[in-house]
Write a structure and sequence with these properties.
Layout lengths: L1 H12 L38 E10 L10 H9 L5 H9 L2 E11 L11 H14 L9 E7 L9 E2 L5 E6 L14 H11 L4 E5 L10 E3 L17 H6 L8 E3 L3 E5 L9 E6 L2 E7 L18 E6 L13 E3 L20 E3 L5 E7 L4 E6 L2
Parallel strand pairs: 1-2, 1-3, 3-5, 6-13, 8-10
Antiparallel strand pairs: 4-5, 6-7, 9-16, 10-11, 11-12, 12-13, 14-15, 15-16
The structure holds zinc ion.
Amino acid sequence: MARRTLILALLLLSPACIPADAAPRCGVPHKPPCPTTTPRPTTTLPTPPAPSKRIAVLLINFADDLRQPWTPAFIDSLYDGPPTSVSDFYNRSIGLTVSADVFGWFTIATTTAQCPSSQNALSDQADAAAIAAGVDLSLYTNRQYFWPANAVSGCRSGGQQPGTRSWVAMPTSCNQATGICAARTIPAHEFGHNLGYAHASAWNCAGVVLSTSCVHSEYGDSFDVMGSGYGLLSNLNRLRFGAIPSTQVVDVTNATITVTPLNNPTSLVYRIPYGSDFIYIENRAERTVYENGPGTWNGGMLLFRVGPDYTVQTLGAWPGSHLLDGSPESNTNPGARGLPVGASFTTPTGVTITNLSFDGVNNTVQVASP
Ligand SMILES: [Zn+2]
């Protein structure tokens, strides 16, 4: 009864939105972020984190769930293997060197029922077990606690944002025998929180590309690993890490511009002022192994995200962004969010953006402000 009373009290006290300093918990629908009532602090370009990261992956199971569905060598292939590994992903996205070592399995005293409220306790137990087994955890910048997902609500993935600890509840659909592991995005996503990244969200704007009454979709960005995809990090997220020089950022109000592909290191990043935020324009014409996910890419379509200036941080973490739906009238595929060639939209502030043409690599785009 006392537990029921506590849960009820927590529910009543639970805000309708997520405070900016809340640790993200992944895998369930999130509440929208609380509106910012005071201006967010603007800093200079954030200092890039250390040029390399080393993750200790601790395979754990619970006192009442002793499954070991994968070998440490297989799990290591998700981190250090060829394309689509965590290491390859961050190297290609932001030039960060990531390596990982996998240890375990370690059985901890926490039960699956205790898991949702014992995130730090289970981590401490896993650390102690690893140290007892001779692992020198001081060699690692980050720790990721990794277990086979179970049916207990709340025993799920998450990551400190920013921080050094993250948690991966990997579905057993991750198949060692076939090597097919669609959920391989989870380790990369949770590690992204440790780097400071918030979720890459989307706005659904009731039949138009952008309005003042769009509905927040927490994981709606199907192109960024911090949303629902495994595409390379967005230009905004790359700028935040210093992976693109600030000298390559161009603010546009009235111009016809050439937008080159995301991965081109010399590409300019064009953005359009929108209130205190910006609309960032992105070309994903260069198809890597990471752009073959749920986002259906039609030749020449352009992505638009609304986000803050890339130098803005909140409590040491980077605020999220909102991918727009460039073809909202006909779109039944939530992954297909590009603005097609020949299409245009007008923002509530009166700026008209037109995707004029695509030559197979580059887009020509017209921006017209009142
Ligand atoms: Zn998350």
